[in-house]
Every structure is written in C-alpha cells, then in structure tokens.
Write a structure and sequence with these properties.
Number of helices: 3
Number of domains: 2
Helix content: 10-25%
Oligomer: single chain
Number of strands: 14
CATH class of the largest domain: Mainly Beta
CATH topology of the largest domain: Umud Fragment, subunit A
Structural class: alpha+beta
CATH architecture of the largest domain: Ribbon
CATH superfamily of the largest domain: Umud Fragment, subunit A
C-alpha cells in the first residue's frame, strides 16, 4: 500500500512538473509574440483604393517597425525611434484625426522644411517637378493652398491614386510621431468585396477567406511575396 501511495505521489509530481513546463513554454511564446509584434513587424490589410495601382484592395502586407516605432501590443503606448522616412517611400501611420482609429498607408512626398506645390497636374518640391511613375491620374490641389511649407518633424504624404485619396492635401502633414512603420512585402492578396476589409466586418472577412479556399482563383497569385 505504501509503495503504491508513493508511486501515485511521484506520478502526481511528474504531472505537475509537465504542466508547469508547458505553462512556462507558453509564457515564453506569448512574450516572444508581444516583442515581435511590438517592435519588429505586424500584418496589415488594404481596405481602400487610395494606393492603386501600387497596392490593391485586399492586399495583405507585412509591416516593418524596425527603427520607426516600438509599442506595447493592444495598447496606445508607443515610442518613436530613430529612423527617418525617405521621399517616395510608403509609410504606415496613425491618423492625426481623433475620429479615425485605423492605421493608414500613403507615400511620402514632402520632407520636413521643404516647399510643396501642386500645379499642371504634378507635384513640385522646392520649385522642381517631382518625377512620379506610380500615380493614377493627375495630381489636383482640391482647395489646398500652395506652396505649402512642411513643418519640422512632419511629412507631406499622398496616395498613389490621386483622384481617390484623402491625404495631406486635406488634413495637412503627418507628424513623425504618428509614423509607425513601412510595408516590406505582400504575403497574400484576395480579390474580394472591399467591405470585407473594413473595421468590425469580421463575418465578411471570414467569408472572403473561406471563398478563397473554395475558389483559389480569387487569390491574386502574381502579387504574392512582392517585396517593396
């Protein structure tokens, strides 16, 4: 009886050690996820056509945060890092508008201290026309007063689809502190209704993924793993 009791106790202790080991293992996995998500990379999906034809509705991106921003996932706390965006680079940022909670992606056009002017359907930086081979349609001012002097620690951004982009022409420049990263790769692209990628449209998004499994032709295979 005593030997059986000791055996039962030993088995219970071994089971407890396995449980503790699994718990510690999962804690390390969660910690690694939070570290990577907060400082290295995140996933994003394109919900609108403001960056067409560079980015399409339904493009799924990997965003690099390295050097741009570090934060705690699922919170609003973040710290701006040392990296400065380059001209014509695509960046992802928090909207300066208080009623817009989703991250936005646009292209950097004007750098801090530069003069931005829009005329003749083109962009002029410090009096020189900016060559742009990625835009869809001519660039219009839409009431914007030019020349516009970009303030310090701010960036003038626009969408590539110039006729369908709410950008710095309307809301002004983007503070450096709002820029959290840059896209590095398209890892998935689905040709699905645009409302599937809008905030709080989980059922529509689930159906888009399910339809892609049933109908692989909805996947834009040629766009997969495109690197910026």
């Amino acid at each position: 009886m005593k030997s059986e009791k000791r055996k039962t106790i030993a088995q219970g202790q071994q089971r407890l050690k396995r449980i503790q080991s699994e718990i510690f293992g999962w804690l390390w996995v969660i910690a690694a996820f939070l570290l990577i998500n907060g400082t290295v990379c995140q996933a994003r999906v394109i919900p609108s056509g403001s960056m067409e034809n560079t980015l399409l509705i339904g493009d799924h991106l990997i965003m690099s945060r390295i050097g741009y921003d570090a934060g705690v996932p699922f919170t609003n706390w973040h710290k701006t890092l040392w990296r400065a965006p380059r001209r014509q680079q695509m960046v992802i940022f928090k909207s300066p508008l208080t009623n817009h909670s989703e991250d936005i992606i646009k292209r950097v056009i004007g750098l801090p201290g530069e003069s931005v002017e829009i005329r003749e359907g083109a962009v002029w930086i410090n009096g020189k026309e900016l060559p742009e081979n990625y835009t869809t349609g001519p660039t219009e001012r839409y009431g914007m007063r030019t020349p516009y002097l970009v303030p310090d620690n701010c960036y003038f951004v626009m969408g590539d689809n110039r006729g369908n982009s709410y950008d710095s022409r309307f809301e002004g420049c983007i503070p450096r502190a709002n820029i959290i990263g840059a896209p590095v790769m398209i890892y998935m692209s689905l040709d699905a209704p645009s409302n599937a990628w809008e905030p709080d449209h989980t059922p529509e998004r689930f159906m888009a993924y399910a339809n892609a499994i049933v109908h692989p032709s909805q996947v834009r295979w040629q766009r997969l793993f495109h690197i910026f």
